[in-house]
Amino acid sequence: MTEDNVVYIGSKPVMNYVLAVVTQFNNGASEVTIKARGRAISRAVDVAEVTRNRFVAESKVKDIRIATERIASDKGDSNISTMEIVMIK
Amino acid sequence: MTEDNVVYIGSKPVMNYVLAVVTQFNNGASEVTIKARGRAISRAVDVAEVTRNRFVAESKVKDIRIATERIASDKGDSNISTMEIVMIK
């Protein structure tokens, strides 16, 4: 159930993901988790800030977690940073 | 005094900033704050993760804060996301 309330950040414009987060809150979610890896991490912060400042004023950041994931590719393994922003309202 | 233990993340390679953080810990700091704005935020997470995983094993992330700053430019005001990662050891 919690897993339903996850928005994964890719390379689309920030507003696409803001809309996804706002929709989840409007559909009754009390908690939405924004997940990103690598360079999308900056965009994840933008999504959380735009949501909080412009669309869901009663929402706030409950927790931010960072970690490292190991990615296997044809050039060998590499590490990538990950971030999760848990928002509640 | 706390302000001395701040590392600002710019557009240099990650390892430059990791070295700055590690140096502060080695010089006796018990807390180092990594600050970044905009697209440098992803790099700030890399710096924290590389420091923790490879150089200062006893360090950990104490707090992560995100916020929005208003920037005045010749094209008018705009908003930029900011992040602070507080590391302790």
TrEMBL record, chains A, B:
* Keywords from the named record: Chromosome, Cytoplasm, DNA condensation, DNA-binding
In terms of InterPro entries, this protein maps to:
Alba-like_dom_sf (IPR036882), DNA/RNA-bd_Alba (IPR013795), DNA/RNA-bd_Alba-like (IPR002775)
Q: Does the keyword Cytoplasm apply?
A: yes
Statement: the UniProt record of this protein carries the keyword DNA-binding: yes
Which Pfam family, an example, fits this chain? Alba
GO BP field: chromosome condensation
Q: Where in the cell is it found?
A: Cytoplasm; Chromosome
Q: Which GO terms describe its molecular function?
A: double-stranded DNA binding; RNA binding
List residues of the DNA/RNA-binding protein Alba-like domain.
5-66
Provide one Gene Ontology cellular component: cytoplasm
UniProt main location, coarse: cytoplasm
Q: Which family does it belong to?
A: Belongs to the histone-like Alba family.
| HAMAP family recorded | AlbA
User: What does this protein's UniProt record list under function?
Assistant: Binds double-stranded DNA tightly but without sequence specificity. Involved in DNA compaction.
Name-wise, this protein is DNA/RNA-binding protein Alba
